[in-house]
Amino acid sequence: MSPETIVHADPRAAANVPPPLLAVDGLSLEFRTRSGVVRALEDVSLSLQKGELLGVVGESGSGKSVFAYAMLGISDAAAKITRGTAVFDGMDLLGATERELREIRGREVSMIFQSPRTSLNPIRKVGHQIEDVLRRHAAVRGQDLRERAIDCLKRVRIPDPARRYEAYPFELSGGMCQRILIALALACQPSLLIADEPTTGLDVTTQAAIMDLIVELAHERQMATLLITHDLAMAAQYCDRIAVMHAGHVVEVGPAQVVLHQPQHPYTARLIASTPHTADSIAAMQPIPGSLPDLRAAKLPPCRYSARCEYRTERCDTEALPVVPIDATHSVRCWRAAA
Amino acid sequence: MKLILKRLLLALPNLVGVIVVTFVLTRALPGDPAAYFAGAAATPEAVAQVRTQLGLDRPMFEQFLSYVSDLAKGDWGVSLATGQSVISELKGRLPASLELTLFGLVLAVSVAVPLGVLAATRPNSAWDHGVRALTTAGVSLPTFFTGLLLVYVFYYKLGWAPSPSGRIDAFVSSPPTVTGFYIIDSLIAGDFTALWASIKQLILPAGTLALFVLAPLARMTRASMLGVLSSDFIRTARASGLTPMTVLYTYALRNALLPVLTTLGMVFSFLLGSNVLVEKVFAWPGIGSFAIESLVASDYAPVQGFVLSMALLYVLLNLLIDLAYTWLDPRIALEG
């Protein structure tokens, strides 16, 4: 790792805060497709401390998963990073070779996905799938491998782990498959877990159990966690901080409770009003008007929310957006907050 | 075991159908075996006499009943042309055909699967287009033409291949018969001269067959591999940092092979069909060429025996494929 790869000058360094585990600065990413260039991420800056839980919230198509895939270097072949840096634990993720990234994936940074049943190899015993990861990253061989795999299952609170080791995914419930995926992701004790909508497709009681498990394990291991979800209330319940994404922009970042109770961005406020957890009745629930802008458009306005925004002014469509700090930990990307 | 029995029982109606249809079809064909075997100079009385001897003057239903009751006793009839029982004729020739067909199939699979994987991992590359061109050529040329072309190029022009004259070089003695497969028999006998001689004879006809079925196998491998490579569990495997080799072989290919296996069963029936012509081109002493000769002579019993043995073979192969399926895919076993 050459010294110039660590380009990130964090203002908090002065305040004796340790450097972040993950620091993403000004990341822009586009997909070059047959129907045009899709600017999926623009100027995304986020940082994550060791052991911290950060929720990334936004509706479908806001770029949450694209961001996560870019961190692991498993983006679609059409994806192209055009600007920005991402530094993980001193390593430049965007400049790293595929070989270097393979060493990190599953060992330092792991990921769990939505639809757990299809995310496991259907014709391989789950125990063997965990062993594949252990064999790859941890120098475990032979009989130890089996014991370690069973141990991994035990640690995600799977009852009767030795029997589950022999199971195929089709023999397990969705919640159980998600536990297996978590066991797989945590097998090598990563310092960062990216959970991409981990509870989508599970029933409500299982959802809570899975989220409790993830948070519990994260605290137990001092593991930083990036929770990607469309459910702002859930993110507020489990995360330390929340970043709200809209159409490839991070529009607001702040401590979870502050963002939930004093949202500064009109989109965040709308998102909260549209969530059943926080609305008092069905009638009080407000849909967000309009839909995401077409990210293929040749000329997108500086604020990609402006077309849907009730506070839209002329400068929203003409002048570059400021990132307005509300306080040391809370910032918003909106002209209204600057006023 | 239960699965095997169930499959065999399910195949019975098919076999009954095959028996009925071939019986009716052979009778419906033009040509009169009595006239053929009485000879060109025979008087109408002599022909009628032969017809009575063969039982061909009896009603069709009666002939069918006696054919079926003979079959049940294990008697497949007698070839009028050779005077041998159909069973012993087939037994002598079946290994030759099977060796050719299976060798062709193995050759096809061992070329088609890597080609399919190559094309799938590099979609729209030069490899992908090359594979498409090769497989299209293979499937669009009739086998007898491919066979003749190969003989022309590799025997007549280049002189690399031996003459297309049967299973083994005329100057090499065939190995003692154990299985009837020359490759296996010469290995058992430790006779490497015979082994080499028989492999050399096999390559061109087996290659002809393989070229013909390369296309469906390679295309199915490519399509199925592309589908699997974009599935969720491959993403998980990649996100876990598994090496490309592990992702490609342990995770993707094993899953992608399931539909290829189904295609294999289909392709085997193509091979049995095209075998007949390829054997003719390469003077291969198999049951295909025997069946053609019998058909030309309106010799009913061997033709029926040939079709029946093909049907049995097909049933057996599909059983094997079903077994391979349960071995490859744990989800099948439960439903079995």
Topology at a glance:
The complex is a heterodimer of chains A (339) and B (336).
Chain A: E1 22-33, E2 36-48, E3 53-57, H1 64-72, E4 79-88, E5 91-92, H2 98-104, E6 109-112, H3 126-137, H4 142-155, H5 161-164, H6 174-186, E7 192-196, H7 204-221, E8 224-229, H8 232-238, E9 241-246, E10 249-255, H9 256-261, H10 266-273, E11 324-325, E12 331-332, H11 335-338
Parallel strand pairs in A: 3-8, 3-9, 6-7, 7-8
Antiparallel strand pairs in A: 1-2, 1-4, 4-5, 9-10, 10-12, 11-12
Helix pairs in contact in A: 3-4, 6-7
Chain B: H1 2-28, H2 33-38, H3 44-54, H4 60-72, H5 86-121, H6 126-140, H7 143-157, H8 182-189, H9 192-229, H10 232-239, H11 244-281, H12 287-296, H13 300-328, H14 330-335
Explain the overall architecture.
The complex is a heterodimer of chains A (339) and B (336). In chain A, strand 11 (324-325) and strand 12 (331-332) form a beta hairpin. Helix content of chain A is 30%, strand content 22%. Chain A has a domain at 3-96 and 230-338: 3-Layer(aba) Sandwich (Rossmann fold), CATH 3.40.50. Chain A is α/β, with parallel strands linked by helices and 339 residues long. Chain A has helices at 64-72, 98-104, 126-137, 142-155, 161-164, 174-186, 204-221, 232-238, 256-261, 266-273, 335-338; strands at residues 22-33, 36-48, 53-57, 79-88, 91-92, 109-112, 192-196, 224-229, 241-246, 249-255, 324-325, 331-332. Chain A has 11 helices and 12 strands. Chain A is globular, with a radius of gyration of 21 Å. In chain A, strands 6-7-8-3-9-10-12-11 form an 8-stranded mixed β-sheet, with helices on both faces. In chain A, strands 2-1-4-5 form a 4-stranded antiparallel β-sheet, with helices on one face. With 336 residues, chain B is mainly α. Chain B folds into 2 domains: 2-72, no CATH class; 93-335, Orthogonal Bundle (MetI-like fold), CATH 1.10.3720. Chain B has 14 helices and no strands. In chain B, helix 7 (143-157) packs across helix 11 (244-281) and helix 12 packs antiparallel against helix 13. The model of chain B has no long low-confidence stretch (mean pLDDT 85).
